[in-house]
């Protein structure tokens, strides 16, 4: 008699099961590798975007010079780049000594102010609990982890600045070389649409950048006048900090307020209240008047959408993501409008 093979396949000796396991492992590994590459790609994209914004600034100045003088394009571009760099270097040279002195004073003042605030807060039960919670090892590790995440960079801070600056210079000198190179990668039937999208992106980013620079300048001037009128020490460095950090919407004014209030507390609680009120008033003016004027030239960007983009980009890429979240949002909105919404409306009409 022929004996029947009653042995059943188990997961250990079933080729089909082993194949499924290896496929699953391969898919998980591919997803993880793709996410890692995506994060790195986003970091590089942010550096390219920062260089593009600076190039737009350079080209805007060169176009203005060309319209007023009629000089050749390349001459105007060189004047724009070198002139901007020389002006920035000159400003640092002229006010550098004073700012450096004030920064040194600020570094000496802040620890004393923090100790003074801690001493005053320890006099109350609630303040004592807050100090204990903030001084705990767990809170310290969280702050250190957040700071390390926020200040992370792709090539180091100076390396990032170096890359951004040279990208900006190359983009400024020959912008058509790069835009046409991207367009040539697209099938011919979509190249005209691609040119339209590139032109709209350039216009929207240029308008946004002009509005943002104007807003930063107004914040700097108003803050400097207000702090000088109050009689605040370190008013110049605090005003510069407020103007620069206002580039970051929503979170920038809060970040700039912290050192100003700490310095003011060393004078008196009343001075700290005046400084907080001044920053709040300037933020109100900037948000409700200046930003409103800027938004009239831009596509509609809901404030909640910008905050969400800042949180996502900040958590994913750190400081660069938080700083460049708004122009990234502008790019995404333009792409969605041009590639999806307009096509959907056309299809519905047909």
Describe this structure in words.
- With 350 residues, this protein is mostly helical.
- It contains 13 helices and no strands.
- The radius of gyration is 27 Å and the shape is globular.
Gross geometry: globular
What string gives the helices and strands in order? HHHHHHHHHHHHH
- Number of beta strands: 0
Give Rg in angstroms. Answer: 27 Å
Largest sheet: none
Would you tell me the overall average pLDDT?
A: 78
- The portion of residues assigned to helices is over 70%
Terminal-residue CA separation: 75 Å
- Helix/strand class: mainly alpha
Percent of residues in beta strands: under 5%
Spans where pLDDT lies below 50 across 5 or more residues: none
In DSSP terms (H or I, runs of 4 or more residues), the helix count works out at 13
Layout of helices and strands, plus pairs?
Layout: H1 15-69, H2 73-121, H3 125-135, H4 137-150, H5 157-173, H6 175-184, H7 191-230, H8 235-245, H9 252-267, H10 269-295, H11 303-317, H12 319-323, H13 325-349
Structural descriptors:
350 residues; mainly alpha; 13 helices
């Amino acid at each position: 008699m022929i004996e029947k093979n009653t042995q059943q396949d188990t997961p250990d000796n079933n080729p089909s099961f082993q194949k499924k396991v290896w496929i699953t492992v391969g898919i998980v590994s591919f997803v993880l590798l793709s996410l890692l590459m995506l994060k790195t790609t986003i970091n590089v994209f942010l550096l390219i975007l920062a260089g593009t914004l600076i190039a737009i600034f350079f080209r805007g100045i060169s176009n203005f010079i060309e319209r007023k003088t009629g000089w050749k394009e390349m001459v105007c571009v060189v004047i724009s780049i070198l002139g901007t760099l020389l002006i920035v270097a000159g400003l640092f040279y002229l006010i550098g000594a004073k700012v450096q002195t004030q920064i040194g004073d600020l570094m000496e003042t802040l620890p004393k102010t923090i100790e003074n605030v801690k001493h005053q807060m320890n006099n109350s039960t609630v303040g004592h609990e807050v100090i204990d919670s903030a001084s705990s090892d767990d809170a310290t590790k969280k702050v250190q982890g957040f700071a390390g995440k926020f200040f992370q960079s792709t090539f180091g801070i100076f390396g990032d600045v170096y890359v951004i600056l040279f990208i900006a210079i190359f983009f400024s000198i020959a912008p058509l070389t790069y835009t046409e190179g991207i367009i040539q990668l697209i099938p011919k039937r979509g190249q005209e649409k691609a040119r339209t999208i590139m032109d709209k992106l350039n216009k929207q980013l240029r308008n946004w950048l002009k509005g943002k620079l104007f807003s930063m300048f107004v914040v700097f001037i108003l803050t400097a006048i207000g702090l000088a009128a109050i009689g605040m020490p370190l008013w110049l460095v605090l005003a510069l900090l407020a103007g620069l950090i206002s580039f970051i919407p929503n979170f920038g004014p809060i970040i700039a307020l912290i050192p100003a209030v700490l310095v003011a507390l060393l004078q008196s609680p009343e001075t700290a209240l005046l400084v907080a009120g001044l920053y709040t008033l300037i933020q109100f003016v900037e948000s409700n008047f200046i930003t409103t004027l800027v938004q009239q030239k831009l596509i509609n960007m809901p404030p909640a959408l910008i905050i969400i983009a800042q949180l996502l980009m900040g958590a994913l890429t750190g400081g660069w993501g938080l700083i460049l979240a708004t122009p990234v949002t502008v790019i995404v909105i333009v792409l969605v409008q041009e590639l999806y919404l307009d096509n959907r409306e056309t299809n519905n009409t047909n």
